[in-house]
Amino acid sequence: MMAGNCFYVFWKHNKIFLIVLIYVDDIAIAGKEIPGIVLFKQNLSKDFKIINLSQTSFGHISINFLTILMVSTAMERLFDQC
Q1: Residues 19, 33: Cα–Cα separation, whole Å
Q2: Residue 11 domain-assigned?
Q3: For a tag on the chain, would you pick the N or C end, based on fewer CB atoms within 10 A?
């Protein structure tokens, strides 16, 4: 669910599951469940090269700071050949 131009909130069982903040090519991911953060990062890495800049926590909340690099996809390479 989108909450603003670069602020996203994902819900699970009527509770906030992940909060994602995006600024240009930098992303901050916050959540209580580490497996959810890991899964989100794995899915992101399918389309982008991600670099984990740092990880911190505040109480029970884990926060990951990432930067992403665009990686050309097979579809983009196909269009480049046209």
Answers
A1: 11
A2: yes
A3: C
